[in-house]
Amino acid sequence: MKKLILALIGVWVLLVPCSSEAQKVYRIDGLSSGDQFLPSLEGFKSRMRELGYVEGKNVLYDFHNSKGDPELLKTMAQNMVRGKPDVIVTSSSTATVSLVKATESANIPVVFLSAGNPLKLVKSYARPGNNITGISTAALELTEKRLELLKELDPSVKRVATLNNPNGVNYQENATSIREAAKKLGLTLLEVEVTSREEIAKVLPNLTRKKVDAIAALADALITSGIEMIVDHSIKEKLPVIPVILTNVNKGCLATYGADYFALGQQGAVMVDKILKGSKPGDLPVEQPYKLKLVINLKTAKAIGLKISREMLLRADEVIE
After folding, report:
1. How far apart are CA 77 and CA 66, in angstroms?
2. For residue range 208-217, what is the model confidence (pLDDT) as tens digits?
3. How far apart are CA 192 and CA 222, in angstroms?
4. Which residues contact 15 (CB under 8 A, 6 or more apart)?
């Protein structure tokens, strides 16, 4: 009997590590720099459920949104690093930059669910290195496509105002990509720099139909945080606005062509699953978006007096009416 008890105890000891591992609860923190980036976090959680991660059972989430406040973003990032979660996911380059150095020294894996310019964050697409990897939005690569879309929608466009933030993470890259695209397409740019929402409000009255034919809202957390102001002004002046992020078309911009942020989050979940199962972030290549969409806001087109052809509407993946 004594031998049987000892044998049972031995079996129990051997099984405990397996049981413990099966019951492990992973902690995943998320950081976003604005509401417009939240769909990627929603897509992330959706795909994680499909992969078997049940919130409250084997995974706990703690997501934060700085809503365009740079100081709050910095504080949130510092608190995350101190908390030492198993993985941190981010949405937007601005949010990711705030974490890069701190998480490297703390050895916390970071997966960016959206980054317009991943090379600001990693050593290379193929071998990111260190503790970080993620999904590119291909925002810079699609700059010319978006301007082509603008010209298709409104062939009369010749002068385009660009709103850009000189303090932004991708300021120079944004400026270079749209200058090159405009030159190819024969467009004249009026480059407007803003560093706060107050400055956006201040410069908008100068962007009239007499001076420009359209507005390009470049990829920057500040610019997208002020998109409602930009849309209100554009409707008044009957100016088409081409943003980078799809959700800004829902907020009244005319149209855009770009990455589906919900789908980006789903893509990123697969990466996080691999990391939780033992893969090193630096060994997982940065991925391009699997899903790109053409979205047109027909309601806005009517408001600014622009007629959209039936052929263009049929090409669109989504038409907002």
Report:
1. 10
2. 999 999 999 9
3. 13
4. none
Q: Could you read off the pLDDT of 162-195 as tens digits, one per residue?
A: 999 999 889 999 999 999 999 999 999 999 999 9
- Distance, first Cα to last Cα, the chain: 78
Determine the Cα–Cα distance for residues 90 and 73; give it in Å rounded to an integer.
Answer: 11
As given in the structure block, the two tokens for residue 25 are 């609860």
Q: Specify the 3-state DSSP secondary structure of 297.
A: strand
Residue with tokens 């007629």: 307
What is the residue range of 152's domain? 143-259+294-320
Token readout for 44 is: 């992330």
Q: What is the DSSP string of 103-143?
A: HHHHT--EEEEEES-GGGTSS-SS---TTEEEEE--TTTTH
> For the CA atoms of 67, 263, 175, 205, what is the dihedral angle to 10 degrees?
-50
DSSP run (H or E) holding 242: strand 241-242
Same domain assignment for residues 232 and 126: no
Q: For residues 250 and 265, state if they share a domain.
A: no
Give the C-alpha separation, 284 to 271, whole Å. Answer: 8
Distance from chain centroid for Cα 60: 22
Q: Which pTM was predicted?
A: 0.86
Total number of domains in the chain: 2
Flag residues of the chain having pLDDT under 50: 1-21
pLDDT tens by residue, 198-208: 999 999 999 99
- Mean of per-residue pLDDT scores for the chain: 91
